[in-house]
Design a protein that fits this description.
By secondary structure, the chain is mainly alpha-helical. The chain has one domain. Helices cover 65% and strands 8% of the residues. Helix 1 packs parallel to helix 3, helix 4 packs antiparallel against helix 6 and helix 5 crosses helix 6. The protein is globular and about 50 Å long.
């Protein structure tokens, strides 16, 4: 598989696992990993799964690797900051990292797309993490709306701080 195909496939697989992370961040991450033979050997799907899991663990150890953000029109910097602070407070109270919440939303939504089969029911901890994401998103929206009269569209998102996330960390990320 050529580099561009591997990068596109890895980014798509990572987006399935973390739908709340910006596509540009995932593409940049995939480019960095494409240069590492041990990640390439796993293939895009297994590599994305292994990387997402290792980064979820890292987020507890080094939360600065990811940044919670908000997509909303009509919200100023102060409103955005208040929204992010409100969301982070919900995650802390639930003892769920934002990365685990984003992954849980994917798992729960995938189960929904299958028609809620009992044999594919996500674990209670996964469903709890998905609820934490939803509560955090609602808390952020309420905090943001204190500044503006209700934005039309609102979404909580998770972005890599790619500029602050050196390739060395990518090289040292744990493997399964």
């Amino acid at each position: 598989m050529d580099d561009e195909q591997w990068i596109a496939d890895f980014a798509a697989q990572a987006a399935c696992r973390w739908p709340s992370i910006a596509a540009a961040s995932l593409a940049e991450l995939a480019r960095a990993l494409a240069a590492e033979p041990r990640w390439r050997e796993l293939g895009p799907e297994s590599g994305a799964d292994a990387y997402v899991r290792s980064m979820e663990e890292l987020c507890w150890l080094e939360p600065s690797a990811m940044q919670l953000g908000i997509e909303a029109e009509g919200i100023g910097a102060q409103g955005m900051a208040q929204g992010v602070a409100a969301a982070l407070a919900v995650f802390r109270a639930a003892n769920v990292s934002p990365a685990a919440g984003a992954r849980a939303i994917f798992a729960r939504d995938s189960w929904s797309a299958l028609g809620y089969p009992e044999e594919a029911l996500p674990a209670a901890t996964v469903l709890d993490a998905a609820r934490a994401w939803e509560k955090a998103e609602r808390a952020a929206q309420i905090a943001c709306c204190a500044e503006a009269a209700g934005p039309r569209a609102f979404a909580l998102r998770l972005d890599w701080k790619v500029a602050e996330h050196p390739v060395q960390q990518v090289r040292e990320a744990s493997m399964p």
